[in-house]
Amino acid sequence: MSATHPASLMSAVDQALSIKYNNLVYELRDSGHDIITLSLGEAFFDLPLPRFDDLSGVGLHHYSHSRGLPQLRQRLAKYYQDEFQVPVDPEQEIIVTAGSKAAIYMMLLAVLEPGDEVIIPEPFWLSYPEQVRLCRGVPVMVPQDVSVFDLGRYVTPRTRAIVINNPNNPSGRVHTVAELAHVHDLAEAHGLLVIADEAYNEFVPPGTSFRACGAFDPDKHHTVTVNSMSKNYGISGWRIGYVIAHRRLVDEVLKINQHLITCAPTILSCYLAEHFDDILEITRPQIRRVVALRNEVAGQLADAGMTVVPGSASFYLFASLGDSVLDSTAFCTRLLREGGVSVVPGIAYGRSCDRHIRISVGAEPVDRVARGITAIRDLIDATSA
Ligand code: PMP
Q1: Which residues does the UniProt record annotate as the domain Aminotransferase class I/classII large (predicted)?
Q2: Are 41 and 172 in contact (CB under 8 A)?
Q3: Does one domain contain both 89 and 197?
Q4: pTM for this one?
């Protein structure tokens, strides 16, 4: 056998389909094509370039505390307390790391035994199942038509955790209080962890109420909250995310963080701690606009006879392909090659989602979004039986 053969585990792990598509977009753009990009997992905001020369503190160029810069942990703990009434001890119940993607992986690594099952409702953010597999666990996907109130059917003696992505990427759905209470009851009854990914918590329109999972379990007996600065602050490239959990779990994640990452980027953490509220003040009005655009587009799609999975938050729409005879991958490939519009195939978000596509309205101006939507509708019409 060649020395370059990968571990057998890797054959079970796929590339992130959204990132694969976006790489294709970058390649097409580099070769001179104008691509309307409705496939990116982020909203673009106008933000001032950070100035580091007025930062206080020493060691800005160096490693910092592996739990995260103390000032940043304090700000994040206060944010969860003030916004969602979730008490967080900044010394022991939070760890900041290089993005929430790494945070979720480290938490899974810290809690899963080989063969442990993790319940993941579809449509899911596509890294959950692959991360579970990387940790030698077993992702148990739940088709998208199964109600949260029926998740109990998927619990077995091997179930270790349930992932709740609220608001949801790709549907923009916000869970109701009754649904969250049900998940917590289920977790308590079976000794499971609820891994609550709240990366889009700011992207909720007025009138929709968002409840943090942590508010149901202030002592963190079974709740792990994961969040990120990537979306709410519009700084995905800074790679800063965090986990809020029981100190016992945070201590385990700390060990993994020390061996994999050391610490989140120090100078950026320091900047964030000092400008925490200023940045949010800049992003919040822009968040409101992009969420309003999302809901405007949802209305336009409905008017044009297209079905969108119910949701009101984020900048994503999970739209049905209606009568098109194409599966989601064939549809997206044709849309990109022939229409110059990129969206993500629904199959990336679960096997029950191959009749859908994810449309992200966060990274293009309104007129280009409208042109992209027209191209999607035209391709559905052209490929309908
Ligand atoms: N959770 C969800 C639901 C996401 O959509 C993303 C990024 N697309 C992440 C986590 C990871 O974000 P980051 O690593 O940038 O914090």
Answers
A1: 55-363
A2: no
A3: yes
A4: 0.96
